[in-house]
Design a protein that fits this description.
about 425 residues, mainly beta, Lipocalin, 5-stranded mixed sheet, 2 helices, about 45% strand
């Protein structure tokens, strides 16, 4: 295995825990300019079909579950046959995000690690290509405090709220096992995000009390685009759909789209008169226009980015997470605060089915509960139960049936599905 790359950022200290969505107050004072050691920006690679040297094209999606245990061990579970492959070890991690191929682990100590699962799907518009390669740990970005990582289709945004320092990683370079930086951006420290948007980048701008007040678009070189800004008070949560990129604001959603060099914004306000708590974190099946978010302790929000509409789904039990499957049946999967998985209907607004409690022991450990993830693909949902040392596969279309349970020999503190 090649020696992982490292990008060093000279940044002040801040601890930010994404899993709990608790935003600490950033320190006062200007940001410190980053000192970055990296390769030069690479040219685009591949043959137009996603083929890379060392990979093999396969007839079907290479769906795997990647887990990170409490000691930093990374494992890859093949959902086709249940075999487990060890990938390696990373430094401590407090949060994990993915784009369906790469994993990005972040720690409160400032280390962000990039891991290539080696499994991916190439969208060729009217069909797909599926690839299998060698999983590897690519390298780390060193900053201060926990990084906010926002994966995109061709780039990945990394932002350190403690200092307002951010960088855009080039995904083509990641495919070659390198850390390549497209652009570096700086703003006053605040609780915000840096979001890849096609060939552009969105960066939140600070407002009162260290929270975001607006969103500014930047070009490929990281320069702000005149007039490409929009108000978004207390921006929290983002997700990209086939329609555009969603940013959660206190009055609804901001939808950003691109057309060549232009960036356009649309507001999708909450229904008039609603008193339901706002959405702050979005989840959905990859490539679908409808996304979901927890609505405080009252249920779930559905946002249809194609129709530009919100829908509220009330639940009797408060939810910890919710994800929109957005299939023909309108399935929505949710994790309740008592550890059950619900299947909701976007058509009727009701609950279709529920599992038994699956996180009885994990619920007693807030640190482990913070890393639990419920993910959904076209046919199944997956849930890690860290304290129980289990991974559950749930057939949401068959009355929330537990299709398979995989026992793990370590504590699967974090979970992501890759190969999609």
């Amino acid at each position: 295995m090649r020696t992982p790359d490292t990008l060093l950022l000279s940044l002040p200290l801040l601890a930010l825990t994404l899993a709990s969505c608790s935003w600490p107050e950033p320190p006062a004072g200007p940001a410190v300019a980053p000192s970055i050691a990296s390769s030069s920006a690479p040219a685009r690679i591949g043959d137009g079909h996603g083929t890379l040297e060392g990979s093999t094209e396969i007839a079907e999606p290479q769906l795997h579950l990647m887990t990170l245990d409490t000691d930093g061990r990374v494992d890859l579970l093949d959902l086709a046959d249940g075999t487990i492959t060890g990938v390696g070890d990373v430094q401590e991690a407090d949060a994990l995000s993915t784009d369906g191929r790469y994993l990005f682990t972040s720690s409160t100590t400032g280390t962000m690690t990039v891991i290539d699962s080696g499994m991916w799907t190439w969208d060729h518009e009217d069909h797909f290509h599926y690839y299998r390669g060698e999983p590897t740990i690519i390298g780390t970005v060193e900053g201060e405090g926990e990084a906010v990582v926002t994966p995109g289709s061709s780039a990945t945004g990394v932002y350190f709220p403690a200092t307002g320092e951010g960088l855009v990683l080039d995904n083509d370079a990641l495919a070659r096992g390198e850390l390549g930086v497209r652009a570096e951006l700086t703003v006053e420290p605040h609780q915000g995000m840096l979001i890849p948007l096609s060939g552009h980048t969105l960066l939140t701008q600070p407002g009162p009390e260290g929270r975001a007040a607006s969103v500014q678009a930047h070009d490929a070189d990281g320069e702000p685009i005149d007039g490409a800004t929009a108000d978004c008070t207390d921006a929290r949560g983002t997700i990209t759909t086939p329609v555009g990129t969603v940013v959660g604001c206190d009055d609804g959603a901001l939808l950003a789209t691109t057309d060549d060099d232009d960036v356009a914004y649309e507001r999708i306000p909450y229904p008039a008169g609603t008193s339901v708590p706002r959405a702050t974190q979005f989840r959905a099946r990859e490539g679908r226009p409808t996304v979901a978010a927890v609505a405080g302790d009252q249920g779930a929000w559905l946002l249809d980015t194609r129709e530009r509409t919100w829908q509220f789904l009330p639940t009797e039990v408060p939810l910890l997470q919710v994800s929109a499957v957005d299939d023909e049946e309108g399935h929505v999967v949710a994790l309740t605060e008592d550890g059950r998985v619900l299947v909701l209907s976007a058509d009727t607004g009701g609950t279709i089915a529920a599992t038994e409690p699956l996180l009885t022991r994990t619920l007693q450990d807030p640190a482990l509960l913070a890393g639990v993830e419920l993910v959904a693909d076209q046919q199944r949902a997956y849930l890690n139960a860290p304290a129980e040392q289990q991974l559950h596969e749930i057939d949401f279309a068959d009355d929330a049936r537990i299709a398979r349970t995989f026992a793990t020999d370590t504590v699967p503190a974090h979970l992501a599905e890759v190969g999609r």
